[in-house]
Amino acid sequence: MSAIRNSIHKIKNYEWGKLFFELIVVFLGVTGGFLLNNWRMEQEERVLEEKYLSSFLQDVNYDIPELENAIKTDSIWLAKAKPLLASIVNKNIKIDSAQIIIKMIVTISKVDAHSSTYEEISNSGNLNIISDFELKAQIVNYYLALGGVGFIDDYFHKYFSDFVMPFILTEYSVLTGEFNNENIINTVRFSNVVAGYYSLVQQRIDAYTSLLDDCYLLRDELSKRQVVD
Residue 173 has what DSSP assignment? Predict the structure, then answer.
């Protein structure tokens, strides 16, 4: 009984206020450490986000003149090719005009757009680090459109390799600038090669123009974000 009384006496005399204070201190310490760690992580994420957004802005600023020059070049090409194509359709193409067409389709170009930042942020799983949902969606949509343009460019190059170059190598002398047989300009093969190239230039310029519009919008949004920050 005396042992029980001693235990009760000790409990009554225990400094509960001190214990409570110690618990509060521990709780605040753990909570403060947790909050501080979260704050530090958020700050690191914001710094990384700004780094990515700055890189995106650099990429689109590079893409804009690339697209503008490509659209201008293709527009000039279409303007020159249109009357020549009409003469093929009307079956009154002359040999000198046919030689001009061959020189126009013997080369091919491709837009060198930058997508390294998007590939990096996607592959690293950091895409969700962009806090502005609408801006993130705009970035994703732009690079999806860029991928679509890349598909058209790749198809164009495949067409060039599979149809244009075999025709050039078998029917046209690059050294003399003459056809092996001038009658080839009145064949379906010749008209199909030229018409196919012309059609792909039209498709490509439409894709480039649409992508350029998206590029302008994305540049404006990224620029506003930098001004705000």
Answer: E
